[in-house]
Amino acid sequence: MNVETPIELNAENKQISSTPWWKGAVIYQIYPRSFYDSNGDGVGDLRGCIEKLDYIASLGVEAIWLSPFFQSPQADYGYDISDYKAIDPSFGTLQDFDDLITEAHKRDIKIIIDQVYAHTSDQHAWFEESRQSKNNPKADWYVWADPKIDGMPPNNWQSVFGGPAWEWDARRQQYYMHNFLKEQPQLNVHNIEVQEAILETMRFWIKRGVDGFRMDAINFAMHNRALTDNPPALLDMSRVTRPFDMQKRIHNQSQPETPLFMERIRQELDKFGDIFTVAEIGGDEAPSEMRSYTADNKRLNSAYSFDFLDGPPVSADKVRGTLEKWTGEGGEGWPSWAFENHDARRALSRWSAPENRWDAARCYMMLLLSLRGNAFIYQGEELGLPHGEVAFEHLKDPEAIANWPRTLGRDGARLPMPWVKDGLNAGFSTGTPWMPVDPKQAEFAVDTQTDDAPCMLRFTKFALSVRKKNKALRLGNMNFLDTGNPSVLAFTRSYEDEQYLCVFNFSDKHSKWKHAVGSGHIVQFSDDSLSDGHEVPADLPAYGAYWAKRV
Ligand code: NOJ
User: Can you give the residue ranges of the Glycosyl hydrolase family 13 catalytic domain (predicted)?
Assistant: First the structure.
């Protein structure tokens, strides 16, 4: 694998930057609605984020990614934007956002915002105009199509959240397309005017000081204009809960023109310096699309997929199979990895049994922080939170309500952050929280995890500080070792003359591994039984993990 090139030169061959700030960064994801409520209305807000900046800085992360806080009817909790340049009043004001940027930058924390360019809210002024007639100035800003002769939708495309991807609109006497909820009409990103509007939105936020963009569901941005039916996926039906999964989604999304639009975006953003871009890529073609969307250092900087957000539990084979696709060669971009976010069940609850919680949480955190790429930590992951329990009557996610109980289970990942174990609403809000606090999560509140005793929070901070200090862990090449034990994963991360050995036991049993890689000194061990400087061991306790500096 190639060594990362740390220096970039401009046309006069002058060094314009060293490694960009985002390369190897650890990024903390905030779901603002559930992070901290500063005004007692039950909904987390931007002032709440400002009040918790010292906490975030104490973790040692380099950046924050904020899920959407823009004006929105909240049909999909902010992923349905009705004005890209306004803050939803439930989250605060533009002044609050400007203050958040200022205060974050004072603490050397960058701000990444979430941009949703595949669809808007049905209450966006663009859609209001578009739906009025077939010949208004924005008539072609969304994806409209005539019904079939029998009144049926124009093709068989299905929406992610269930049911056809088409909704009838009597004003235009046409169907409009929506890949997600019917309240999220699909933008026609093929249209150059729409592309211009997107670029204009990006410029607006860059001028306010943002440092990067997470691009939501961006491989959904364009559709096949011939509206060709998707072919069937022919899966084992017992595994499928949504008609969406019964198709090969090759025409409603994933069009070859989308990465070219990413190039246009990059050309624009390059005018403003190191603005970070990361694509969210879901679907069966994620590995090749991640590659294509970040190719040749002329599209987006990075991409992440659902590799570790759904599917089978983490394993040595899975990590190796996934990461070995990222060799750093052939004009490849830089990957990003997430084990948890607002769309997925908490990793601890997916991958390990409750009795192994602490050992597993430490093992997974070390793994996340040693994968070659950027690491996203989702609020509460640093505490080792289990997935939240939500009773049916408290569900908010429309997908969860519609498909109960066979759901994606997103609400359990979106419960209020527990700050104080015994405080009102776990210290999240003095009002009635928009979703109730889970008492099981409150057990692990921030105030229970202090720096003066071993705990997950302290462990996370320490692991982050080790990664931050060592270029091998931040930027180094990755080479897998044969461990002779399917439960044990081992790889090295190397940068110049620095090398780290990273070893993980994913089993709930003690495991041995083929330990033939020379010596090294433990720098971080997932439990406290081995001290700093200890020689590397050939056996590991259940969920044991270590980083050792090669000597
Ligand atoms: C991905 C987002 O993460 C998810 O929360 C949202 O529902 C969909 N995209 C649609 O925007």
Answer: 29-414
